[in-house]
Design brief:
Helix content is 3%, strand content 46%. The protein is mainly β. The strands form 3 sheets. Strands 2, 3, 6, 7, 8, 9, 12, 13 and 14 form a 9-stranded antiparallel β-sheet that branches. A 5-stranded antiparallel β-sheet has the order 1-4-5-11-10, with no helix packed on it. It starts with a helix and ends with a strand.
Length: 256
């Protein structure tokens, strides 16, 4: 009986879903899209990356999970728990996403090895612009690597809805080697081209996601003046009756 059932069981494969705990394990991410960061662009000019970095991207419903497995000399690691967007010179990993595929904007979401976050928008001319998106990060440190996991609500991003989406992505990492700051990226970087996301060959594929419509609430002050005017009227018995009439004299809306 068991000899018959066991071979049949091998045909059933259970899809793995990442456990969002800050630990990137191969078993949990086996169904994910996989990438790497093989180039060093600072101080080297597109030389081989000083450290190996593996990246995993997996969609679960309307959430995008991203896992970084960043091998490192942990004695040179620089990281502390920081306020948002204040990671300074810490080691960090980041994903950049072009949701419209036109190279006009790249949304960058990053974290240091303690899970402290930063986010920004990179414009086509290479300048940075302020950007804020709610996303979650969890991280852990190990003997020869640190792990960072991102949970990004896809519906919080702005994009053109479609049954299947293909977004250009950039994966970056900053760290230290021999007390020297190094920058690593997933492609050979052309410094003469300010559009970073235009150069990446990597794409992620998403299915059946929706975009939330943003409603901008504009604060304003409503100023009004009310007047109560005394009036004398006669009733049906030709007797004088005093009445109040309410009216608006002025109305003004001020937007800051």
């Amino acid at each position: 009986m068991f000899k018959i059932l066991l071979p049949l069981c091998s045909f059933f494969v259970i899809a793995q879903q990442p456990v969002f705990d800050g630990i990137v394990s191969a078993e949990e991410w086996q169904d994910a899209q996989q990438f790497s960061i093989p180039y060093e662009i600072e101080p080297s000019d597109n030389g081989p990356a000083h450290y190996k970095t593996e990246v995993f991207v997996h969609q679960v419903g309307n959430d995008l999970f991203v896992g970084f497995l960043a091998f490192a000399n942990m004695n040179e690691l620089r990281s502390s728990i920081r306020s948002r967007d204040q990671i300074g010179g810490d080691d960090n990993v980041a994903i950049g996403i072009d949701t419209y595929g036109d190279g006009r904007n790249m949304i960058v979401l990053g974290s240091n090895p303690d899970g402290s976050q930063f986010d920004l928008k990179i414009l086509p001319n290479g300048n940075n612009d302020e950007y804020n998106l709610f996303f979650e990060t969890k991280a852990s440190k190990h003997d020869n690597a640190y792990h960072v996991e991102f949970k990004i609500p896809i519906s919080g991003l702005q994009f053109t809805p479609a049954e299947t989406l293909e977004w250009a992505v950039v994966f970056g990492r900053s760290g230290y080697a021999n007390n020297t700051r190094i920058q690593m990226i997933n492609f050979a970087y052309d410094r003469s081209n300010p559009c970073v996301v235009c150069q990446t060959p990597d794409r992620i594929t998403l299915h059946n996601v929706t975009s939330n419509k943003r409603i901008n609430l504009l604060p304003y002050v409503f100023l009004g003046q009310v007047v109560i005017r005394k009036m004398v009227v006669f009733n049906n018995k030709n007797q004088k009756v005093q009445s109040d009439s309410v009216g608006f004299l002025t109305c003004q809306v001020i937007r800051p």
